[in-house]
Design brief:
The chain has 2 domains: 272 residues, Alpha-Beta Barrel (TIM Barrel); 111 residues, 2-Layer Sandwich (Sulfite Reductase Hemoprotein, domain 1). It contains 14 helices and 15 strands. The chain is of the alpha/beta class. The structure holds iron/sulfur cluster. Iron/sulfur cluster binds next to loops.
Length: 432
């Protein structure tokens, strides 16, 4: 993992919903230093914004799932009118997503929204852009400039422009698109800089994961504004998940990206859940709730592990708030190793489950009792941690697993007695 790329920082929200900072590491205009804010997760509502009750319900559901920022579409005046009723009822910063009609941005600012998103592909009248910049500046609101591949394609002189711009990145598969995105951004951001406005975030989305990696990498070399990462039109969750994670992981591992949105043609709750899991997996966010480890199962399995894992996942998601590590393993091969590194763990064998708490064996129960006993142990461990009697991630006892290979020898004793060469490059478990 590379360290986060320093950017200017933007901050938005209010005292009621709280404030979110995005990016950081570069000093503010007044010289005050900033540190990079944790990468935030955002999503967008799927219902109509003018359906006030439905929109409030959806925003609150997404915030409860862990969304740091929620965006809403405001295609019509009735949507920006609805914002006045929606905003006092939600507990997360709201971004108005504006396309085609700059008036919607002005109305959303007036309604009290926390941030505006503009698309240079469809709001490009200089005077209109300046009006929006001035309205945001007066209220201290940031603007995201989002260039999307689908809405930025040159319609006039396309062949000529493709040739000119493509030559800039002639070594890239997407040279023309990359050049046009950067050219549009430079042109658009010049208007902002002329207005002395720097509260900006940038996005440059495509449905092509490789293009997304190239675009954000080039943009991060050229601009110091925080970056909102995303793969647009990623598709259904089943395939969109891989497409999004492929692009976003590559960028985040290189220190690029300050806020993320995973987009699915599905309930946005999955966007939040998967966005959080991505950040947890990369160590970019402190986990809330259980870190569940489970084996994929194989021909050695002796319990119905797929059902057990799903039941454990649902039960723990409801009842455990601490980021405890819970392992559910199918057999003795990898079971003891994973159990040793977990706070609470079970490994199965012969239609039974052997349960451990921080390395200490606490139960050996038949298959039908594994779920309830594991849950009981997790709850009891959570209580102990909350009372200060135990610490997460602190192993109490080393698990000594039974020798699974029997007389042939698993190697443990041989290694201990010096009969096996311990150097990793020459390790051989030879005959004595
Ligand atoms: S832990 Fe056991 S059952 Fe699970 S995948 Fe590994 S060998 Fe197979």
């Amino acid at each position: 993992m590379h360290s986060r790329r320093p950017t200017r920082q933007i901050r938005f929200g209010d005292s009621r919903v709280g404030f979110v900072s995005v990016g950081g590491g570069k000093p503010r205009a007044d010289g005050t230093p900033t540190t990079p804010a944790p990468v935030s997760v955002q999503t967008m509502t799927s219902g109509y914004t003018h359906d006030v009750d439905g929109c409030v319900r959806e925003i609150n559901k997404l915030a409860a799932a862990g969304a740091d920022i929620v965006r809403v579409a405001v295609p019509e005046k009735k949507d920006t009118d609805a914002l006045k009723e929606i905003l006092p009822q939600v507990k997360v910063p709201i971004v108005a997503d504006v396309h085609f009609h700059f008036q919607r941005a002005l109305e959303a600012v007036e309604a009290g929204v926390h941030k505006i998103r503009l698309n240079p592909g469809n709001i490009n009248d200089r005077a209109q852009v300046i009006d929006v910049i001035q309205a945001c500046k007066a209220k201290g609101l940031p603007i995201r400039v989002g260039v999307n591949e689908g809405s930025i394609i040159e319609r006039k002189d396309k062949q000529k422009r493709m040739k000119e711009l493509g030559a800039v990145f002639s070594d890239r598969k997407h040279g023309y698109m990359l050049a046009i995105m950067i050219a549009k951004l430079e042109e658009y951001l010049d208007i902002f800089y002329e207005q002395d406005f720097y509260d900006i975030a940038i996005s440059a989305k495509s449905m092509d994961a490789a293009m997304v990696v190239d675009a954000y990498t080039e943009i991060s070399n050229r601009f110091d504004h925080p970056l909102h990462l995303g793969v647009t039109h990623a598709g259904p969750k089943e395939t969109g998940c891989i497409r999004s994670i492929a692009a976003l992981s590559a960028l985040l591992c290189n220190g690029i990206g300050d806020t993320i949105r995973i987009s699915y043609a599905n309930d946005p709750i999955y966007e939040v859940q998967d966005g959080l899991e991505l950040l947890y997996s990369l160590g970019l966010k402190t986990r809330v709730g259980v870190d569940l480890i489970a084996c994929p199962t194989c021909g050695r399995i002796q319990v119905d592990l797929f059902t057990l894992i799903q039941d454990v996942r649902k039960a723990l998601a409801e009842k455990i708030q601490l980021p405890m590590k819970v392992a559910v393993m199918g057999c003795i091969v990898n079971g003891p190793g994973e159990c040793e590194g977990a706070d609470v763990a079970v490994f199965a064998g012969d239609r039974r489950g052997i349960i451990y708490v921080q390395g200490q064996k606490v139960a050996n129960v038949p298959e039908e009792q594994i779920l309830s006993k594991l849950l009981e142990e997790c709850l009891s461990f959570q209580d102990k941690v909350n009372r200060g009697e135990a610490k997460l991630g602190e192993k109490v006892v080393d698990i000594v697993p039974p020798d699974p290979i029997g007389q042939t020898g698993s190697g443990w004793e041989k290694i201990a007695s010096g009969l096996v060469d311990k150097a990793p490059t020459t390790l051989t478990i030879g005959r004595t």
